[in-house]
Amino acid sequence: MRTAGSETTLGGRAAGGTAASRDRRPESAAASEYAVSEYAVSEYAVLEYAVLEYAVLEYAVLEQYAICEHAGFDEFRHELNALYYPARVEPLGPAGAGVGLLRGVRTEHLTVGVMRFGQPTLVDPGRTGAGYHVNVTLAGRIAATTDDEETISAAGEATVFAPHRTHRLTHCAEGAAQLGIRIDRRLVDAELEALLGRPVQAPVEFALEFDLSSPAGRAWRASLDLLLAELDNPDGLIGRAAVRSYHERLLATGLLFAQRHSYTEALRAGGAPATPRSVRRVVDVLQSEPQEPYTVGDLARVAGVSARRLQEAFREHLGTTPMGYLRSVRLDRVHEELQAGAGGVTEIAYRWGFAHLGRFARAYRDRFGELPSETARTEAGDR
To answer: Which InterPro entries did the record assign (predicted)?
Structure first.
């Protein structure tokens, strides 16, 4: 990266592109070590960075959310504005023969889309007002500005735009493609307040360039890739409101951990220490409802302290992190139900909050010395 000076709504109404298009559907250095480790232990978040590089290959992502696959410029402009927000979208030069591609979906607090520009294009939304925006370039080169900063991103690089700043994509090359993720401003602010353990007054000022090769950047991209995989999986859990909410909050929390911003130092400082009573409140919640899709911010809210101080207190009193403790409780519940023959492995794992079965099986074997399928077979043989 070089620096110089209509969609489907999950959980709501559905809307497609035009009839014609539907018929054609064939770390930043400032991130703390704490933030990387605590964010990354989520049962949903940690994937190897390269696992879902499919996003670059023929843009095989969000295929069931196609809006326009072979669009002329006017149709592409109309649908892009309908998916995100009104923007000035203009060709840079005479109209060419290239065609645009747009797929996208909305959840309650996210808009996620993949787009390919059929010809050199300017996109100027100005101030977007209600949402933070992350663009991940998949192919080609895209030049962008925000207020007095500008950058050029290539495949695998990302940029972050704040709603109170003007921003433009000044030159999207012909054939360039990107993932565009809009995160509701209220969600980002709420997650930041939960992580800090106090209200925030000023808006978050993110750095423009987002390093996806850092440990926290890779974790954030992994959580995005997992969301994309869930959206593309007809048998996935994304249809459940609680799971959608978890993915939304995970992206917002991960962005606050992974990308430099005006509250990074406050996150690292942590605020007032957590008391044993704060730890007990969190333990009680995790013991009573371990199946719920908690984020670090959720548990900090329960404790009434910052996420950093909560992690420190858990390490001091319990020798683990809040999310590590949650994982242990979930594994114990699964083990108990497998021994009782209360269902199949997949059913029980999902019931107790494990969404990634391969990672669940490894964690189960590490804890109990055998795979969950072996526990199930043993207990079935004893009955």
So the answer is: AraC-bd_2 (IPR035418), AraC_XylS_family_regulators (IPR050204), Homeodomain-like_sf (IPR009057), HTH_AraC (IPR018060), HTH_AraC-typ_CS (IPR018062)
Written as one letter, the residue type at 165 is R
DSSP 94: S
Q: CB within 8 A of 265, min separation 6: which ones?
A: 30
Burial class (CB in 10 A: 0-12, 13-18, 19+), 162: buried
d(CA 376, CA 229): 28
Q: Which residues of 204-239 are buried (b: 16+ CB within 10 A; e: fewer)?
A: bebbbbbbbebbbbbbbbbbbbbbbbbbbeeeebbe
DSSP H or E segment with residue 158: strand 158-161
Instruction: For Cα atoms 6, 83, 145, give the angle at the middle one, nearest 5 degrees.
Output: 150
Q: Residue 185 belongs to what H/E stretch?
A: helix 185-196
Express each pLDDT in 44-98 by its tens digit. Answer: 333 333 333 433 444 578 999 999 999 999 999 999 999 998 999 999 987 766 7
Residue 167 near residue 68 (C-beta atoms within 8 A)? no
Q: What is the DSSP letter of 57?
A: S
* Domain map (residue ranges) of the chain: 2-244, 270-382
Decide which of 121 and 269 is more confident: 121
Token digits of residue 152: 């050029």
DSSP 204: P
Task: Give residue for tokens 């054609």.
Answer: 24
Q: Which CATH superfamily is domain 2-244 in?
A: Jelly Rolls (2.60.120.10)
Query: Could you give the count of Cα atoms lying within 13 Å of 42 in the half-sphere of its Cβ?
Result: 29
Question: How would CATH label the architecture of 270-382?
Answer: Orthogonal Bundle (1.10)
Tell me the one-letter amino acid at 41: V
pLDDT interval class at 380 (50, 70, 90): low
Which tokens hold the place of 327? 């994982």
Q: Largest Cα–Cα distance of the chain, in whole Å?
A: 75
| CA–CA dist 283, 292 (Å, integer) | 13
At 314, list the tokens: 């858990």
Residues 270-321 pLDDT 10s: 777 888 999 999 999 999 999 998 888 889 989 988 888 898 899 999 999 9
* Residue 357, pLDDT score: 82
